[in-house]
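Re: that chain you flagged

S.,

Sorry for the slow reply, it's been a week of failed gels. I finally had a moment to sit down with the sequence you sent. For the record, here it is as I used it:
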Amino acid sequence: MIGRLNHVAIAVPDLEAAAAQYRDTLGAKVNPPQDEPDHGVTVAFIELPNTKVELLHPLGDGSPIQGFLDKNPSGGIHHICYEVEDILAARDQLMESGARVLGSGEPKIGAHGKPVLFLHPKDFTGTLVELEQV
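Prediction finished late last night. Pasting the structure tokens below so you have them in one place:
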């Protein structure tokens, strides 16, 4: 069902500082930040030859990332994202096997302009999993 690793998302308390660290210290290509109001985050993607790193920063009050940063003030890995060919078929198969899809269960449009869903971390060894249709 899952395809390649799309990205690893890291919640950061200071997006500019994190982007500068990847760009200036590690020599990575960092894309400009983009606001994702439907998800309550500002993101900046770091392009790597084989995948991406997504830096997440809270956007506005009530951002789900703020709760994560309250518990982890220095930031840390928030989720991993896998690609799937058919997000609705993947969702249905996962739900039939007992996995919990977060939210309404209906895909939202993610930062890449493609449908995404999140799976409950308690069902995946403590890891929040995002699925993105490619």
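What I noticed first: The longest strand covers residues 76-84.

Talk soon,
D.
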